Amino acid sequence: MMNKNLPQLLYKNFFVSVVLLCWIPFVISGQPLRSQQQSIMHRVNVDSLPANDYNNWTTAAEFGMTVTNFGILGEGWNNEDQPSALYQQYNPQPKKQVSHFSYAGLWIGGLVGNESRVSTAIVDGVFDYGEEGFEYKPAGQPGDSIEIRSSIRTNKYFSPSAVSHEDFVTNFTDTSTAGLGDTHTPLGIQVHLEAYNWNYTFANSFVLLNYTIKNISDEITTSGYDIKNLFTGIWMDCSVGNMNYTSIYEPGGGWTWYDNLDGFDTMPDENGYPLDIAYQFDVDGDNGWAESYIGMKSLGSNISRNVWDSYYRQWVWTSAVNSDYPDYRMPQNDEERYNMMQANVQPSNPGTETHFDNGNATYQWFPADPNSWIMMLSSGPYGYPQAEDRKST
């Protein structure tokens, strides 16, 4: 049997950690209308799949975020009693309870031979499970769901193996093509996700996502195959707003998807590496009701930091063409997705990017036009035999 593990550096299971965080600053076309967006979660045919679990959200932290066992984060604002990505969920002041995204999802891309393949949890404008984009399925047996653990001894989910005050643990794979026709060519991977959140006052505004990725291509072909130059990414359909001020659940509630700006903070940290935080904010703050940011950052992996880097992309929802910002367009197939995951979008010029640190603007400029922006943060490549090879290329 040939060695089917991700080459050399990825000989064992490979993991990557991502943090989703919210914070409050000191200062503050031709696509279909977002009002046409339909439900995803409530259209899932749960009878045909192993225990789709989309009813769990983080409750230890102030950041309440839905976590599923098929690669999607958030619940699409289908259920007003369940947060999708809600910051300050326990604050008694409605003005502080800010929503940040409807859905987010994991993308994983790599090379099988010379073919680019990307497995996605979700893509723009797709609303039915079984359509292109919903390419992960739970790895468990019928009846399985997300495992919950807690490091708090008095908690009913207490476990000595818990990492945080509330862990969500689950597994999903991309190997099934059932219902997807010829739109999905699997990489042949299993993903083990552990999501962590805490109720400490200094650590309650973020959720850590720890993904372990395993090559199981021998379930597709007898001998399996190598997956080279792996990239991971989080696709996020952001829209920062406050449901207590403008509601998506009520006709005429005033909710809009189109008043947001994105950016990518590349200021260096104390070790000289760029922060590489992708973020979005509501451009006018909704009269003080939506003044927090949503951000995400790749924290690291078991691969040397000298080997991989972070990359940022953004585009208007479902827009494959953008005459104002030609590089800011939606990828339409695996080859385009894979290419976008390994290169930054070109900063627009001049832009009026307004994020700041101690009054100083960040280094890059992005579109100054508020819109329904999708953002994606990717990292990689994971698969070079030696760090020196990456540097030399």
Description:
It is a single chain. Helices cover 4% and strands 33% of the residues. The chain has 393 residues and is mostly beta strands. It has helices spanning 334-341, 387-392, and strands spanning 14-23, 56-57, 64-67, 72-73, 85-87, 98-112, 115-120, 137-138, 147-149, 166-173, 189-197, 206-215, 228-241, 260-265, 277-282, 293-301, 309-316, 356-357, 360-361, 373-382. Mean pLDDT is 83; it is low at 1-12, 25-33, 35-48, 350-363 and 384-393. The chain has two helices and 20 strands.
Question: Helices, strands, pairings?
Answer:
Layout: E1 14-23, E2 56-57, E3 64-67, E4 72-73, E5 85-87, E6 98-112, E7 115-120, E8 137-138, E9 147-149, E10 166-173, E11 189-197, E12 206-215, E13 228-241, E14 260-265, E15 277-282, E16 293-301, E17 309-316, H1 334-341, E18 356-357, E19 360-361, E20 373-382, H2 387-392
Antiparallel strand pairs: 1-12, 1-16, 2-3, 3-5, 4-6, 5-6, 6-7, 6-13, 8-10, 9-10, 10-11, 11-12, 13-20, 14-15, 15-16, 17-20, 18-19
